Structure formats: C-alpha cells, structure tokens
Amino acid sequence: PGHSPGFKKPPALLRLKRKRPGRWSDPAAAAEAAASPAPRGPSAAARRRNPFSSLYNAPQRVPAAPQPPAAAPAGGDPSAAPFWQFLEPACEEKPSRGAEPAERSDILALSQDLHSPLAVPKAPSSPGQEFPADWSIKTRVLFMSSRPFTWAEHLKAQEEAQGFAQHCRAVQTTLPPSVQEPRLSTELRCAFQQSLVYWLHPSLPWLPLFPRLGADRRMAGKASPWAQDEALQQVLMSDWSVSFTSLYNLLRARLCPYFYVCAAQFSVLFRAAGLAGSSVPTAAIAPTTRGLREAMRSEGIEFSLPLLEESRSRKQKNSEESLETETAEGLGEGSRVEDAGEPAPSDDDDDGSFSWLEEMGVQDKVKKPDTISIQLRKEKHEVQVDHRPESLVLVRGSSNTFTLLNFLISCRSLVAVAGPQAGLPPTLLSPVAFRGGTMQTLKARTVSGRARVQGGFEDVFSLEVLGPVLPHALHALTLVLAPAQRGSFRALLSPHEPSAAFNASPAPPQEGVHQDLPACGLQPKTLDQLSQCPTLGKSSLRLLEMKDYAYTWKA
C-alpha cells in the first residue's frame, strides 16, 4: 500500500507519541519525563493546550468554590429560599448530577445568575403595601409558597362557570385577609378563575398567537391556508379591522382600560385616559424603525421618543456636571476647559453651501454628496436606536390616537408579506370583551417539590401560570394569592422583553389630573395601581415577593 501503516490506527500512533519525551532544554528533566509514565485521563487532556485555539480566546478555568446549602430563614419559611431548590422531585432524596437533564442545568444556571448580586441591576425595594404597575406582558409567572396550592386545581364546573360570569359582569370580589381553608372556599376559587380570563383576536387554536415578535420558528410548518390566498387575507383583515375599531371605541368610551396590538414587527399599547398618570388617551409603539416613524410623520401623527429624550437629557446633565467639577477643581489648563465647553459640531454644517469650493475654483472637480447621503448622515443618531427600547414612540391625545388607528389599519408593514406569518393579522389582547373577540384563559398548573433546608428537606409548593399575562391579571392573581397563602409567597416573572419599554412614563411630570374609570371591567384596587405613573422605565419586574402582606420586588 502507498500509505503509512500508522494511518490506519491513529489512536495507537498518538499513544506512542505521547510516551515519547518532548524537546526539553534540560537533559535531567527530559530523562525524568521519559522515566515517568505518561498521564492518562481527562486531567492530562485538560493540561494540554488545544493547538486550534488562540492564546487570547482560550477559556480561563477558575475552580468554583463549594457552595454551602442554602438554609431556611429564621422564621422557617422556605418560600424565601432560592426558587431552584423547589425543582427537587418529591420522590427523590438526592438525585445524582449525572442524571440531571440539560434543561434543568440551564434553569439552575439562570436562577443562580438572577440571584447573584452582580446579576441584579437594582437593589430590592423597601416593603410596601403595593408594587409598581408593570405594563410589560408576561409569558410565564411562577408562584412559590410553603403552603399548598391545592385550592387552585380541579375546579368544579359550577365554580368555573361562576368565574366566567363574574368576569363578564365585572363583579367586584372582596376576599378576607386570610382564608383558613382555601380548598373549601368557593368564593376564592371563583375569583381565581375570574383572574385568568382574557380576550383574543383572531382565534386560531393551532397557531401560537403570542408572542408575534420572533415567532417565525414556532409557527414554521403550521397550516396557513391564507398564505397564498389573497381573497382569504382580505376577509381576515376586514374582520380584524372591525375588531380593532371596536376596541378603540370601547377605549374612548372608557369601557376598556387598555389593549395590545401585537404585530410581527412591533407592538402597540393603547391606554385610556386616566391610566399611567395621563389625562388623555395614549398609544405606545415599540420597537420602531426610522421608516415607520417617517411614515407616521407623513400622516400628520404627532409623537415623541420619551426614552431617547430622557437618555439625551441624562447625558447632557452628566456632561454639564463633569464640566462644572473640572472647572471647580481647576484640573488641566484653560484649553482643556474650553475644549470641553465647545459645542459638538453640528450636522447642519455638512449640507451647507459649497461656496467655498467655488472660491477655490474646484467646484467642478470635487464630487458633492447627494441629498440622500446628507439626510442619512443627519439622521444617523436616529437610525442607531432602531429595534431598541429607546425607539419607543409615544402618541398622546384623542385626535392623534384616532389618526394612528387609521394609519395602522392601512399600514402595509402591519402584516408580514413573507414567512410563516405572511397574511396573518396582528394579535389583539384585551382584558374585556369586544366585537369578534374570543374568551381565553391562562394555563395554570400546580407543582409540589422539596427544598433543601438546614437539617434535611422541606415540602415547597408552586403554581405556574402560562400565557400572555396582562398587567391586570398579574395584580388580580396577587389579590387572590394573598389571602390564600396567608400573606407569604414569591413570584418569578418572565416578561416579553420587547414590551418592557411600555413602562416609560406617558405623561409629563406636572400632569396629575385624575380620571375616573368606574365601568372598565377591572377591580378597584387593580385600577388604582394601573392609574399610577410608571416608575420602571424600560425595565420590568423580575422578582416579586410578599411577606407579612408587604411587597418587595426587583426589576
């Protein structure tokens, strides 16, 4: 054969090469290396450098310090323990690490990051009787407590029907501060069913209609008969326009507090007058692009970019403070202060007259930039915020929101023209009934587990709620859980990230006009919470804890 015999068995050849002494500069070291047997196993492979890796991107392995088991708090309430301990199966005492699936390993790593001091952007709030309003849509909420959630499972047919009736009739449910036997409380179970209801359009059970941003992979392969049928697309869009107009009319009549329009490229939140500290109806759009904003300007829609303006004002304030500090301390010479105080070159100078070229006599030899290039250069800062939270657009006033309604109905970018979502109208989410809307309920299930405590394990219980958890539903669930769990539970919140920008304040600070919304279908306490001016900015709640009927949270 025309090749080396060692080519057939490369592992044997590698073993021979491993046993050979390397090129040592010290003969004694080479002799010692030849006399000692070659190490085998993963430890030897870990010491050798990968020849295909760069010296700069090689991973630095730091030995992890052993973590002591988390102990229960002084009160003995395991609900204050880290939530990943609740994932222990009740039937196992101590599962082996090799048997843990990859999904659970990811969950453990994520939970450790969330609870590490470096991963929490803000310190926990001080205890209060209420938590701030969060206008982001939650995809999953996990409630945990030391008391069982058996009262939330296996609802009777009569209790389920009563919960639906209470929701449709907007019945105000008043629960006692503490319920001794939650499983036997029909009033509590009906209130729980009432808090799970929301309204949706269109209703296509085989398609996941929320979230719509980045949902192409989940929708791929699903049946979509309207994708190639223009007549069917027009019927769906006509029906959607009727439902959209119905919701807006309810909002202007203060019979609907808010609703969401979830498209494939952006989401819109319409809020009635009196919510989020605003005395006029508002609409927030996020994320947006320069093309969408230009189309809105051409339609005469007046809007603002509150997060971008806030960021610019903060940078300007910081620069002014740093300039004052440098001036006060006398750092550097006068030239340094003058350079800091000079205004930044304006983009308007770039498209100024080219008379200086004529003066030099080279106006015909130099290629001048065209108008489009000049315009793009001027708007480069605005383009940089596209698809980011800072691109949030805020529309205020009845006339502007009505113009926005007509603009969205006729907007071509509202419906995707290609991909799995082609021809599918946006998703409408509302807390109250509207024309063409379908009643839906959030999926809730109870899970029992064990948590590590000092001296062994202790039973811990959880309630998982899946689906588009709207702002009013989160508050309604806490009103039900407070008496059922006797004022002690913890909630882990998973928000839909693009909707976190809706927590920007829609009203100027000096505006404080209160508008009554008595017949909007929400509980009075929930309405009071949503009427407050948002304080979370572009972040959202991640952790919510109630202890002794007082809330603390992290964003």
TrEMBL record:
<feature type="compositionally biased region" description="Low complexity">
    <location>
        <begin position="72"/>
        <end position="82"/>
    </location>
</feature>
<keyword id="KW-0217">Developmental protein</keyword>
<feature type="region of interest" description="Disordered">
    <location>
        <begin position="1"/>
        <end position="82"/>
    </location>
</feature>
<dbReference type="GO" id="GO:0005634">
    <property type="term" value="C:nucleus"/>
</dbReference>
<comment type="similarity">
    <text>Belongs to the DONSON family.</text>
</comment>
<protein>
    <submittedName>
        <fullName>DONS protein</fullName>
    </submittedName>
</protein>
<feature type="region of interest" description="Disordered">
    <location>
        <begin position="500"/>
        <end position="519"/>
    </location>
</feature>
<keyword id="KW-0539">Nucleus</keyword>
<dbReference type="InterPro" id="IPR024861">
    <property type="entry name" value="Donson"/>
</dbReference>
<feature type="region of interest" description="Disordered">
    <location>
        <begin position="312"/>
        <end position="355"/>
    </location>
</feature>
<dbReference type="GO" id="GO:0033260">
    <property type="term" value="P:nuclear DNA replication"/>
</dbReference>
<feature type="compositionally biased region" description="Low complexity">
    <location>
        <begin position="27"/>
        <end position="45"/>
    </location>
</feature>
